[in-house]
Inverse folding.
């Protein structure tokens, strides 16, 4: 058991008792014997972040091919380098990605990439949570490829995860790279196993136009008619939905993973966040891969989600700080079926401690606003996941080795 | 003398010799006797930032009145609290603002606020550079008020600054709050003393519309016809300039201080950065006050300048990383007439050291891109201004006291 003594929670000093992996008790004073006590003077407790869209192992591509046209960027800079990836390199890249997540207060992520076993191993060792999805992609002209993906996905789903911190899921890349058969089959398989289905949806106007040309309808409507939209589907980007598609997504309960930095950087457009919120859509937040961000910081993502949300709505009252913070925390955890993202009794002990003497968190008039707009990683001193300490006083155990291995692996890939 | 040993500069290891306040020598190996040596293994040297638009003492308003309409925000939240300011509180607020700047790698700023003597004292004690301007505001229906401002400005300009780190200037708030007589007189006085003149220009479409209604022309054209535009004029915001005004600003050599975060947060609009760059305008970067940001980090400002620049131009090749970095560094220093912002022999020794083992600066493929998009304050280990160390290993001398005084002052103001 762990007792957080005199920690600020919603502006008042409290004691917080952690029993096993749960927040057991919150009150003005908790008395308990035989517990480890952490003196939290001048610290506040907050839920950790849930990054709902990333390709964690793309860390090696940070800063590669800046300011290029999309086609040049993918063809000349990104794809040739990704071809060099191996199981071993993805393991080290994933560990480094998770290190960056922990340093920025994230304890859960939804990942869509290759070499899933390597990423699963990295999650196991680092102590975070993740939904790791098997990714089906580029099968669109190749029925044999589709069948191969289905076999692989079946094998992937038959694995048993050794911890509740890990869950499996299935991903398809997008309607313009993936066949109808694969998308429908993956969703059916995901439904049968009650796991998440993840897909990029309407990231660019070109995707919408091409889809209308090919299928005679927009991607969101297509997915709905294919039976893909429900509460266990996570739609990454969803920048360009028309009113009909917004209604379909809303009725289905499907989750939107909003990636404002990536959308701005790649000139995909600005998702109409406030409009979606007004229509009752479930919105979560993700960083996308670092190649279009260029970090995995949900702090940066929150600030830019708020700013982009106001700009897109032409309304300085849009994209309010509490809404943005919930998108980055409890909304993501809920979408993953994890009872975390709030500091309340009975919730899982995924939390961070922040230093109220840090410049960015002063004058501490509105801590949530400070986290959304002002904070950076220097504010976060401690990170816990599932009741276990992953970062203490800014230090993650073994971080030097993780960085050194990352540097070594990148030399071969770049 | 100070010798930076084995420091990364443009991707190669160098020795950098600092003599007095100058970068004296850069080469593969510098041999010098009787110098203090700093081992810079795994560190890179970069120029520090110049924040070209701020109201430093607004630090106490961080997080106050989030997500409100502009009018409610100013009338109910901001202005009543600003009325409580005193010389003493502004001194402590300024010191805290400068602490935040140093922590985020900024060593120079252009300030527009009240109680200039208090801010000057804070600059003197903390060791940074600043252009402190006397601010004329709200005289528009009051000729007596205009005369009072002119007297005060004359007295302010007659002060002699005790260090080259400080320079004086004059500010007018904007054409909608300030009379023609005050703007013209302040510019003439600034010209006579060869100091900067600073004004908010065309921050909102409403400002433009109101100006057209009142004066029959747009604010940028008005200022040009009033003789206000030249190389020593800094135009904050400049979000809404038409082609005629862009040409006038360009021909005059006036400097634009771009504030993308503030413009997005207050829903002022997005400045057409790439268009201005294409037209040859001199663009610098500023944070504005924290009340509309909510920090003084030029790192955040660069990221959002790049993202907003691409989005506004509908072009992922716009707002390139090197351009953004120069806006935040050398362009600002040049506008202040300070030979800093580059790590080259003969430049002033304003520089930072960054930790190449920090997660955000890996794989170190493109350090400038890493600084613009990925870095946060945790990357910056040391900050020097005018040859003197202001931050060592992340610590600024006396920072605890600065924070404590800030907390105390804020209690009275909030």
């Amino acid at each position: 058991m762990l007792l957080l003594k005199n920690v600020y929670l919603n502006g008042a000093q409290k004691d917080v008792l952690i029993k096993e992996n749960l927040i057991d008790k919150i009150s003005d004073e908790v008395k308990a014997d035989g517990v480890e006590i952490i003196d939290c003077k001048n610290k506040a407790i907050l839920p950790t972040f849930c990054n709902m869209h990333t390709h964690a192992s793309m860390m090696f591509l940070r800063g590669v091919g800046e300011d290029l046209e999309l086609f040049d960027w993918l063809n000349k800079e990104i794809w040739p380098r990704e071809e060099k990836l191996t199981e071993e390199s993805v393991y080290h890249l994933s560990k480094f990605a998770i290190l960056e997540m922990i340093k920025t207060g994230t304890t859960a992520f939804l990942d869509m990439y290759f070499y899933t076993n390597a990423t699963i191993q990295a999650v196991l060792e680092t102590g975070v949570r993740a939904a790791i999805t098997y990714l089906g992609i580029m099968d669109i002209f190749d029925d044999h490829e589709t069948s191969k993906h289905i076999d692989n996905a079946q094998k992937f789903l038959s694995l048993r995860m050794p911890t509740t911190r890990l869950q499996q899921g299935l991903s398809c890349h997008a309607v313009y790279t993936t066949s109808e058969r694969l998308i429908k089959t993956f969703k059916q398989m995901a439904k049968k196993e009650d796991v998440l289905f993840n897909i990029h949806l309407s990231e660019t106007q070109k995707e919408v136009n091409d889809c209308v040309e090919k299928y005679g309808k927009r991607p969101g409507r297509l997915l709905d008619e294919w039976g893909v939209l429900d509460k266990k589907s996570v739609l990454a980007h969803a920048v360009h939905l028309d009113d009909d598609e917004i209604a379909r997504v809303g009725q289905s309960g499907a989750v939107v993973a909003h990636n404002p930095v990536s959308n701005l950087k790649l000139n995909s457009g600005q998702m109409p966040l406030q409009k979606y919120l007004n229509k009752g859509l479930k919105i979560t937040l993700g960083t996308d891969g670092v190649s279009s961000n260029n970090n995995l910081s949900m702090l940066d993502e929150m600030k830019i989600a708020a700013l982009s949300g106001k700009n897109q709505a032409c309304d300085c009252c849009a994209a309010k700080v509490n809404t943005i913070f919930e998108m980055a925390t409890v909304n993501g955890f809920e979408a993953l079926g994890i009872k975390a993202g709030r500091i309340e009794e009975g919730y899982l002990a995924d939390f961070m401690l922040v230093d109220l003497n840090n410049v960015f968190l002063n004058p501490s008039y509105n801590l949530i606003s400070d986290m959304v707009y002002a904070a950076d990683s220097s504010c976060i001193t401690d990170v816990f996941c599932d009741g276990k300490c992953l970062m203490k006083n800014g230090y993650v155990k073994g971080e030097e080795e993780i960085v050194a291995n990352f540097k070594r692996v990148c030399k071969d890939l770049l």
Remarks:
- Chain B touches chain A through 64 residues (CB under 8 Å).
- The two ends of chain B are 46 Å apart (CA to CA).
